[in-house]
Amino acid sequence: MLSSITIGQYYPGNSLLHRLDPRVKLLLLLAFMVEIFVFTAAPAYAVLSAMTLLLMLNSGVPLKIIMGSLKPLWWIIAFTFLIHLCSTPGDAFAQVWIFALTWEGAARGGLICLRLVLLILLSSLLTFTTSPLKLTDAMEALLRPFKGLGVPAHELAMMMTIALRFVPTLIEETDRIMKAQQSRGVDFSEGSLLKRAQNMVPILVPLFLSAFRRADDLALAMEARCYRGGEGRTQMKALRVSQIDFVAVGAFLLLTVLLAALYFYTV
Amino acid sequence: MSIELKNVSYTYMPGTPMERQALHDISLTIREGTFTAIAGHTGSGKSTLIQHLNGLLQPTDGTVLVDGVNINARDRQGRGAAKLARGSVGMVFQYPEQQLFEETVAADVAFGPRNQGLSGEVLEQRVRAALALAGLDYEAFGNQSPFQLSGGQKRRVAIAGVLAMQPRYLVLDEPTAGLDPRGREALMETVARLRQGSGGCPPMTIIFVSHSMDDILRLADELIVLDRGRLVLSGSPEVVFREKDILRKAGLEAPELTVLLDSLRATGLPVPAGARNRREAAAAIRQALLSHKEAGLC
After folding, report:
1. What is the ipTM, given to two decimal places?
2. What is the mean pLDDT of residues B201-207?
3. SS3 for B39?
4. How close B86 gets to chain A, by Cα (Å)?
5. Which of A1, A11, A183 has its CB closest to that of B91?
């Protein structure tokens, strides 16, 4: 049962993206995002889009699933386009009420929307190809240098790991409790809003109780195994930078040079 | 009257990489008035199977009929039938005490019948009767918080919560898991009593998921064995427990009593078959020894 629930949106696979070191992947994603903001010329965007598409195809995750990550943000994208369409001064091709729709606005809006889409697609590619545990490991590793400044890197990572670890457990538990209460005649899909809110009580009370019980058990188990924070702690699966990571960084640097050339050539 | 499964298959998370078929083409009939046990190794699909009996899960393929009514139709009528089935098929999950939520025992037990639309005097009668059936005294426990009771008592409250809906079929998923030997014995006695019918309550059809082969041999009329989502054996426990090879492949062992009597028989002692509990086994062995003696063999 446990394995049948997706944690986050990780999509298991063995593609190049899956095998990259998560630290490298995270840093490259950040750099990629910076480039999207810096090189705002049309030819540069064409290259960036092609690159994103290539990565999507390489990831082995079905395109339909990746595109699905745009769904919740669809209206923001549409709204952004509309704003730009209506508020950019220039050569108007139509007039709607007090707004002049301009060609410049359409071009600018299109570019901004493309930027949004690329940002969303790239960051969901990261979560699709990196398991949440690896992601937290990477964050801990990247935050470690800031420990001197008082950033509790290990504690943050441990908290996230524990939270992630218990997401499927709690989902399973919720499912079980819901089914038990459904068997006692509750109908979660019917009734007024108030009735539906009331129906949550028989789920939430048992769920909270069991969450607290699990937290207690976990604390006890960690103490019994002498857990005492991150000091001197090693990892069973230590992150290791391999050849493909160097290749990826190299490819990325080449891409940056290309983008910079395209950008300065057009500007 | 019966619960009938026709060619039921169920797949978890279809269309994703996590897709897993939990049930393969299962057909079976649970007749009213019987005590049916379901056995199988962890992950054999027992829990998935029982969730089909009251429409909590809808089969990917096939149909489930409760008293002749299809509870899988996806229209409004079908959903209504599934809801009605939840009244006639009571479901006690594993560790049912974890679903308690009300402030008092009485209020928690009343939750089910209240959802059925009962109130006032009738509701209180139901609660009293259900607590009595589960072996708890209304006066002593009714106003207590369920969270202050012992593990065994909590479980009885949870079972009473299902009994209060007066189901005709009662599904119990490993009801004795995590109880001490005495609590286990007392609970099995309660289950046997429910099956007979007592205290003005008509006999119930029991569907019982268990790892305890001894309990199954002792109580069940019918035994269904699942192995990796397939129905591999069904029939009366005495007959099913003779299929040692299939049982072993399914990750199960015949009950100790059966093994003992079989090994006695293998030494040449003519022990009659059909013993279902320790007392019957002892009588059978005694009889065999006496007849052996009469024949002058020892």
Report:
1. 0.88
2. 89
3. strand
4. 6
5. A183
